[in-house]
Structure formats: C-alpha cells, structure tokens
Specification:
heterodimer, A: mainly alpha, 13 helices, B: alpha/beta, Rossmann fold, Alpha-Beta Plaits, 27% strand, globular
C-alpha cells in the first residue's frame, strides 16, 4: 500500500470521526468522567473501610492518578476497538469491496484505525492537561520527558497489538457469523488482566509473574507504570520484547485465520 | 464453448463448479433448541462444470432464475469466492488469487451493494479510488469529467453518498467502478430498483463506455430489457448448469414459438369481438384502443388478416416474442423434461414402467 493512499485513508477516517460531534462529546464524557467518577468513589469507600494509607503500593491520590492515566492511555491503545468493523465486514459482505480493490485489507483497516484515534488523542490531551493542573501528584510518581517518551512508545506498540488481536477474534465471523460475545469476553479479559479495572499490583505475586508473559499487562498497566517513572529502561526494553513477540504470534494466527476464512467467504448481500 | 478460439479470450472458464454447505434447521422453538447441539448440513451445488470464453469488447448477458448461479459465477470471476473445482482465467490470472495486476484492470458493479464509502461525498470516494488504483492525475481528471458529464451528476459530487437517491447512487457507483478504465467489467443487476429513466440512462452509459473502451463485460439482470439492449450473446444458467451459450438473436430464432401482434383500434372492441380474438390467439392485454395478443408463428398471417377483417384497425404491428418469455419457457420446458425423466427412472426402479 502506497504512503499517499495510507495517509489519505487516515485523514478521511479522522474527518469522518470528527464530523459526529454528538458522539465525540458523549464518548469524551462517558469514556472519561463517568468511568473516573465510579473508580474514585469506589476506592474512596475501600480506603475508608480499610483505614489504610496504602493499598497495593498506592496511596488514595496515587490510585486516583493511576485511573486517570489508565483511562486516558486506554483511549489511545484501543481506539475504537469496542466496535466490530472486521466482523461486520465479513457478516454483511462489505469485505467484498476490499477483495476487489488492489490494496491490502489489513493496511487499509490499520489506516482507518489510526484515523479513528484522532478524537481519542484530542480527548487525552484535553483531559490529561486538566488532570495535571487539578490533581495532586504524589511523591512516588515521577513524570518527566523520558518517562513520557518511554510510555508513548509502549502505547504505540500496544495499539498495534490491540489492532492485530482483532483479526483472529473477529475473523471467527467467517464461520460463526456472530462474534459479539467473543469480543465482549476479550474486552473483559483485557480490562481485568491488563490493569484497567484495577492495578495489577493488587494481584498475588505469582499471578503477576505469570501475567508478565501474556500480552494483557502491556495494554494499560505497564504503560501507566512507565509514565509514572516506576519502570527502568531494562524493564521497558523487556516489555517491548514481549510485546513484539506477541505481535508476531497474534499476527501469524490472524493471517492463518484470514487465509482459511477467505476460502469459506461467500460475499453475502449481492 | 462460444468465442473464437483464434482470438485471445479475456475471460476463460473451464469446468468451473462451486458447492456450498448450508445448515438446515427444523422449524419452531424445538428446532432452534436442537440446532444448538446438532445441525444438519446439506450440500448446495451452485455451479456445475461451467465452461465459456469472453473476448475483448464482448458484452455477455448471464440469464437465469433466482438461484441459478449467476451471482456465484460473477463472484468467482471477480475473485471474491473460491471455486470448488475447475479453472478460470481473467486476463490470464486466476481471479481468486487476487493478483493486483488483475485487480487494477477489473471492476465489479453491484446493484444491490454499495461500494462507495457511505459517509463520504462521492468526490472524496473518487479521490480515494484514484490512490487505490494509482491512476495518474491527468488521466483521472479526464476520465472523471467524461463519466460525470455522460451521467449528468455534476451537482451531486459533493453530497454524502448516503444522502443520494438510489438512481444517483448507482450512477456514482458506475463512475467509481470505471474511473480506472478496467478491461473486464462485471455488472450484477446494475439497474435493479431504478425508475425507467434511470435504467435507460445507465444502459446508454454502459453502451457508450463499451464502445469507447472495449472491455469484456458480463451482465446479470432480471430486467430482460437490459439484456436485450446490451448483450449480443447470452449464457442461460439453470440450477447451476449452463444450458445455452450463444447469440441472443438465435434464442429467438430457435426457440421463439410465438409472435406478438399489437393492434391499434379506431373504436373500442365489442365483447363478441374480444371473444373472437380469444379463439385465434392468447390475449395478453387490451384497453379501449389497443389489443395485444400472442399467436403461433405459423399463424401470424392468417390471424393478422382475420383481425383486419373483423375489427376497425388503425395500425397493426407484429413483434418478436420478448426474450424473457422465451427464456422462462425454455427453463420450464427443461424442468418438465427432467421431471419426466425422473418419473421414468423411478418407475424403472420400482418395476412399474
């Protein structure tokens, strides 16, 4: 796929996303304010009930900041991954168009995926700056240019990993038509084991050690800890290594599902 | 197989077959519950050993009832679906291998499925297609200007595709499909759901494109007028089998049993006149000043003179039976023949015959 086509698809998708103003603001409010409010009051109650200063290594302020960072970075990692565009293309037969065009479906979808990140990027910037002004930064959190650069690098790779994960999961639609429940399960697993629902430091050490070999912690928990300056350069490089291996593995499984799926695709709707 | 062997064919199909496995579910709630555990699968043979060739500049009509296999054939030749058996080459490539060198020179227009991006104005979609097909800027602008002028849609280019009427959308789809000057074009129901004016405009456009660019075209349509106006050659499919491959005119010459007589009357026909008309032919329609009837070909002269003698005729026209009637009858006759054969076979097996 040529660079000119790739950038045009990114730009068109970004413009399309921005043209839905109501959706932009609902997504911004519901996807940040509502989620953060729930986490805030839940942890306020837990800290009060336990009467402890720290839980899982986090003070209450540190925990609130963790959720702000995790929710905002999750927007950049997942983009519009809640939707089922690939499964829908298969189920409704829209994939036909991409089979006829002389371009790669995967790259076309990746360009669309990047374009759809623009609203998320804007929301993250706006809410991130607001949070830095209003929130108290605890002493054990060290956000500097190096930690921001390291965290953003992880976010870029995690974003690609999240994108690649769509293909083996949503590709099941070649055989099963409806993969909504499979997608919900993946989303729940990612949020729980990735550290979006709660920091992974609350898990038992053995579970944490095991999870470190899976792709999930690298979606939210590790990027947030990196942003907070709690990950050394060595650990960061190891994280990049594990993520790259998972990119290759998931990409290979996705390619296999895709190759076999093409053979049973019937192009419904025409 | 039709198509001259000496010339290089743009589309070559040899013994092509396609089978699908279709799940079957018993009706009702119990059927649904049972299907959660076990589902019956039946094999549906959509195409059975199809062979034909299409040359440059040829427009070939694919004709057949619903489920005859027309769209499946188009899907295989466009590279959307893999065949189960046999082979096909389009411009020398196997379409299902999806070689970009073929995809850059091929187009599929689907009347029932939008290909343009729903949320974008058509003009933006065209620019995206220019990038996809890597059409040089000057050639793109020249093609766009020509196609837009031919279809008269200059004013709708900046409108979001989802806000266009069906006819306007179809015109945009045609432009989108032809911007890269394809050498092989598949048109699947290109005029479906359109009003008569839009149907005519699209047919004229396709013909104009065919004359200037000389692509090989395969057209499927349930509107026989599309086939009659666009195609010199037709392929008739029935239950996945190719039952006729030849000139459209020959279908009429070989298989037409009837002719149509249209009579324009000076004054309305009386009831006994109509009763008389019914004894000499099959009345298809009548109004105050017009009668239309179907008569056996060898009776045309005698029926025409009888009508002239009995009615106050202003004008009388004799026309060939519409292609659609002939195809329908041809398919029905073959079905009856097969049913008879099946009954015969069953009779032989049970010792009745």
């Amino acid at each position: 796929m040529r660079a000119g086509l790739f950038t045009r698809v990114v730009s068109l998708e970004a413009r399309k996303q921005m043209s839905y103003r109501v959706d932009f603001w609902i997504n911004a409010v519901m996807g940040f304010v509502a989620e953060l409010t729930i986490a805030y009051f839940l942890w306020a109650a837990i800290f009060q009930a336990r009467g402890a200063d720290r839980i899982g290594g986090f003070t209450f302020e540190g925990m609130a900041l963790y959720y702000v960072a995790a929710i905002l970075l999750a927007k950049l990692v997942r983009g519009q991954s809640k939707d089922l565009t690939i499964a829908r293309d298969i189920y409704e037969g829209s994939l036909t168009r991409y089979l006829i065009y002389p371009c790669s479906y995967v790259l076309f979808k990746y360009a669309e995926h990047l374009g759809s990140l623009v609203p998320a990027l804007l929301q993250t910037l706006v809410f991130g700056v607001m949070a830095l002004f209003w929130m108290q930064i605890p002493g054990d959190v060290q956000i500097d240019s190096l930690s921001v650069a390291m965290a953003l690098t992880l976010v870029v790779v995690a974003n690609m990993l999240a994108f690649l994960l769509r293909f083996p999961i949503q590709g099941v639609a070649f055989w099963a038509d409806n993969v909504w429940s499979l997608n919900v399960m993946l989303r729940l697993a990612t949020e729980l084991l990735g550290g979006l629902l709660l920091p992974l430091s609350l898990f038992p050490p053995a579970a944490q050690a095991f999870l470190a070999w899976l792709p999930f912690p690298y979606f939210f928990y590790v990027p947030v800890q990196t942003l907070f300056g709690r990950v050394s350069v060595g650990e960061w490089l190891a994280a990049l290594g594990v993520m790259s291996v998972w990119c290759v593995v998931i990409g290979a499984i996705g390619a296999m599902v895709w190759r076999r799926g093409h053979r049973v695709y019937t192009g419904v709707g025409i | 197989m039709s198509g001259k062997r000496g010339e290089e064919a743009m589309i070559e199909v040899e013994g092509l077959s396609k089978s699908f496995w279709v799940h079957q579910k018993a009706p009702g709630l119990m059927g649904s519950i049972r299907s959660l555990v076990r589902r019956e699968k039946i094999e549906k043979r959509a195409l059975q050993s199809i062979s034909f060739r299409v040359q440059e500049g040829e427009v070939v009509g694919l004709v057949g009832a619903n489920g005859a296999g027309k769209t499946t054939l188009v899907k295989i030749l466009a590279g959307i679906v893999h065949p189960s058996d046999g082979d096909a080459r389009v411009l020398g490539y196997r379409p299902w291998q999806r070689d970009d060198r073929l995809r850059r020179r091929m187009a599929l227009i689907m009347g029932q499925k939008a290909q343009l991006w729903w949320d974008l104005p058509a003009a933006d979609g065209f620019l995206l297609l220019r990038e996809i097909y890597q059409v040089p800027k000057e050639r793109f602008e020249e093609s766009l200007e020509r196609l837009v002028a031919l279809l008269g849609v200059e004013d709708q280019l900046q409108v979001q595709v989802r806000r266009l009427s069906l006819g306007e959308r179809m015109k945009m789809e045609l432009i989108a499909a032809l911007l890269h000057s394809p050498k092989v074009v598949y048109l699947d129901e290109p005029t479906i759901g359109l009003d008569l004016g839009a149907q005519r405009a699209i047919r004229e456009f396709i013909l104009a494109y065919q004359q200037t660019d000389r692509p090989a075209m395969l057209v499927t349509s349930h509107y026989m007028e599309d086939i009659e106006r666009l195609c010199e050659r037709i392929l008739i499919l029935r239950q996945g089998r190719l039952v006729y491959d030849g000139s459209r005119r020959q279908v009429t010459e070989r298989f037409a049993r009837y002719k149509l007589i249209k009579v324009l009357l000076r004054k309305p026909a009386e009831a006994d006149d109509l009763a008389y008309v019914d004894t000499i032919g099959r009345r298809l329609a009548h109004s105050e000043d017009q009668i239309q009837l179907e008569v056996e070909r060898n009776q045309v002269a005698s029926v025409a003179s009888a009508l002239m003698a009995r009615l106050s005729v202003v004008d009388l026209a004799i026309e060939e039976e519409p292609l659609g009637h002939i195809v329908e009858r041809l398919q029905r006759a073959q079905q009856e023949e097969e049913n008879e054969q099946m009954l015969f076979d069953v009779g032989m097996q049970s010792g009745i015959s």
